[in-house]
Amino acid sequence: MLFMTHEIEEILYLPKFVKCLKKESSNNIIKRIPAINRISFVIIVFEQLIVIISISLFCYISDNISLYIALIIVYIIHILL
């Protein structure tokens, strides 16, 4: 649930945010950020969801709680940044 909430927020706002940021900035590093449309971003989010589900399923089948905890910690760090 947390994954989908976070990603929906990014799908709605990130492409427009990047476009405005590039338009208003004179920083060369920011101008190098590639423009992304919503369709491309949705595909990226879907790939992330498949990876997270696959790793979670592997952890469940192999009873590997350490890997699952590492996955959760990495995801929380991603959300905070």
Kindly describe this structure:
The protein is mostly helical and 81 residues long. The chain has helices spanning 2-24, 28-31, 38-62, 65-80. Helix 1 runs antiparallel to helix 3 (38-62). The protein is elongated. The two termini are 19 Å apart.
Index terms:
elongated, 81 residues, mainly alpha
The secondary-structure element order is: HHHH
What gap, in angstroms, lies between the N and C termini?
19 Å
* Secondary structure category: mainly alpha
Q: Describe the global form.
A: elongated
The pLDDT mean sits at 82
Helix fraction by DSSP (H/I, runs of at least 4):
over 70%
- Most strands sheet: none
Number of strands: 0
Rg (CA only) = 16 Å
Please provide a brief summary of the model.
The protein is mostly helical and 81 residues long. It contains 4 helices and no strands.
